[in-house]
Design brief:
Elements: H1 17-39, H2 45-67, H3 74-95, H4 103-112, H5 117-126, H6 132-141, H7 149-165
Protein name: Syndetin
GO molecular function: SNARE binding
GO cellular component, one term: cytosol
């Protein structure tokens, strides 16, 4: 994900290659779960719980990866949405879990890039589940690219103040 250029000018119709790599890992994961299920008796909910844990971890990686973008255009945000949607569709099919747990966590983060300055501040105050670093990245590469330096600094100060309260 770190190697993907998010500051693109054209909307892509093809998702990024890292998505295919991640999906392949989940295919292997499913194979291992099936093999373990055949060799030991476990309650039926155990594979489901293992899938949920793996998917939640992967979804956290998506947000962390997106937050590492140094620059991001609207077209780059569209690519983020395309990548996550492709991942979500394929992993739902592999795992049999619909909807994927924690999908809203990733989708909300991507959508927050499009918010206005006022809406971004409100969103930051409401969404305490994201790290300060992730929120700062959202401000700098999202709304921060469209507002004054002073306004950007004010939003970053809001994040710092919220972090001190944790």
């Amino acid at each position: 994900m770190v190697t993907v250029k998010w500051d693109i000018r054209d909307i892509k119709s093809q998702h990024s290659s890292y998505v295919d790599s991640l999906v392949q890992e989940f295919v292997r994961y499913q194979g291992r779960l099936v093999a373990v299920e055949k060799s030991i008796k476990a309650p039926a909910e155990v594979p489901h719980m293992l899938w949920e844990g793996a998917v939640i971890a992967a979804n956290r990686v998506f947000v962390e990866g997106f937050s590492l973008a140094k620059k991001c255009t609207n077209e780059g945000r569209a690519l983020m949405q395309l990548d996550f949607q492709q991942y979500r569709t394929k992993v739902e099919k592999i795992s049999g879990i619909r909807p994927l747990p924690y999908h809203q966590y990733v989708e909300d983060y991507i959508k927050a890039y499009y918010l206005s300055e006022t809406d971004t501040e409100e969103w930051i105050r409401k969404h305490t589940e994201y790290s300060s670093k992730q929120l700062q990245s959202l401000v700098v590469t999202g709304v921060g690219s469209r507002i004054t330096k002073r306004s950007r600094q004010r939003l970053l100060t809001v994040i710092e103040e919220l972090e001190k309260r944790k």
